[in-house]
Structures are given as C-alpha cells and as structure tokens.
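yo, ABC-2 type transporter transmembrane domain-containing protein is done. seq:
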Amino acid sequence: MLAIFKKELKSYFTSMTGYVFIAFFLIIVGIYFAVYNLLNRVANFEYVLSGVSFIFVLLVPILTMRLMAEDKKQKTDQLLFTSPVSIGKIISGKYFAVLTVFLIAMVVICFYPLILLQFGSVPLKTAYGTILGFTLLGAAYISIGLFISSLTESQLVSAVVSFVVILVTALMDSLVSFLPTDNLTCYVIFLVFVILICWILYSMMHNITVSLTVGVIGEAALTAIYVVKPALYDGLLTKVLGWFSVIARFDNFSSGLLDLSSVVYYISIVFIFLFLTVQAIKKHRWN
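structure:
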C-alpha cells in the first residue's frame, strides 16, 4: 500500500494537478478570508469555511477524475490486479494519496485563525472545530469521487458525474422541499428504490437468487408496513433523502458544535464508498 501511496502522491506533483488544486483552493479561501475577516473585521473564521463549502463541487472532480479512470484507459490496471497487493490496499493507497494533497491545503488554512489572533480575540475552538468538519467533509467527497472514477475509463466522464453528484448532495436540502410527502407516493418511490437495489446487486454479484430474494423481502416488508400503518410513510422520503445531504452535517461544526454523530457520519461515508470502489474494481477484474 505504501508503494501505491508514494506513486500516486508523486504523480500529483510531477503533473500540474496537485499544484493547481492547492493553488485554487488557497486562492478562493484567501479571498473569502480577506473579505470576511480582514476587510469587515470579523473574528469568526467559521464564516469563511461556510462560505467556500461550494469549493468541493468545483475542485474534487478535478482531483479525483484520474485516480482509477486513467489506469483503466491505459490498461495499467491489469498490472495492479496481478500484483501481490490486495485490491483493498491499492484503493486505500490511492485514496490516502489524494487525501494527503487535500490535507496539505488544510494545514495552510490552520494558520488563518492564528493570523486573526494577532488583531484581537478569536473563538479558536469554533474555528478549529469548523476546520475539522471541513476536513471531514472533504474526505467524504474525495471518497465519492474515487468511487465514480472507478466506474469509467474516461476522466471527463468521471469529472462531470462527480460534479453532478456532489452538486446534488450540496443542494439536497433545497431539492427535498420540492418532493411529495404523501404516503402513497412515498410508498411507490420506495418500491422503485428496492427494484433499483436489486438491479445493483445483480450487476455486482450476477446472482439472480440473491437479487430476487432481496427484492421479494423488501417489497413485501414495504407493502406490509403500508397496509398496517400508512402514516409512517408521510414525509419519509424527505427524511431519507435528507440523510444524503452531506454538507448539512457541516453546519453543526460551523455553528460551534462538535457533533460526534456527524463525525461518525463522514467516516462512514468514507468507508462505504471505499468498499464500493473495491467491489467495482473486483467486478471489472473478473469481467
């Protein structure tokens, strides 16, 4: 894993990708820092990171688009598959390499509250709590970008899909307000979700028995709940999709709350998408 990590990290700085990411990241944060904190004389650094959270929509696709897609296009992924290193370690090495590039920028940002401290009192606990939340948010988005990169051999497709997915998660709170909340519509949509899950299971496992079993059990459970107590479906779709609002958890950190549930949420997102990436690569390998 260490060899993969070093190789990937080196590739970011032998090309322009790593430098461009860090430069644009710090420029955008620097502009907001100058306007919010220096020009307006506001001591709260958390306002800066809350204002630049959109940065992930623009920069994460650029940072992650080549992680797996480039290996697929150049057929160098075959060398990885035949290496003695497990696929899990290969994916972990790639992930920690790109995460390190992101952390380099975050280390620089850690000095910003200390700069403000030279001019007066600064709520450092809130500032560094927000930096922690911002770092976890970035780590989660990077894992999502890595997974999407494993699904295609085109870097452009990977970047565009990552952009759309991250944008949707960022706007999820606004989007769910347009969704229906009546129990019948929610019930039908959940039935469609179960069918979609069965299709994903079949595409990954090629086991019709498992897929059908999951589908039958899922559809039967949803129908039984709807017959017995349909009121449980009222607004349930909004609540479930709200769980996918990755950026909403960051608001807790920027409000000065160290929410352990949000920390667990972000770490869970990382592990889930790393696991899905491994499964996607294994499927491609056996195909």
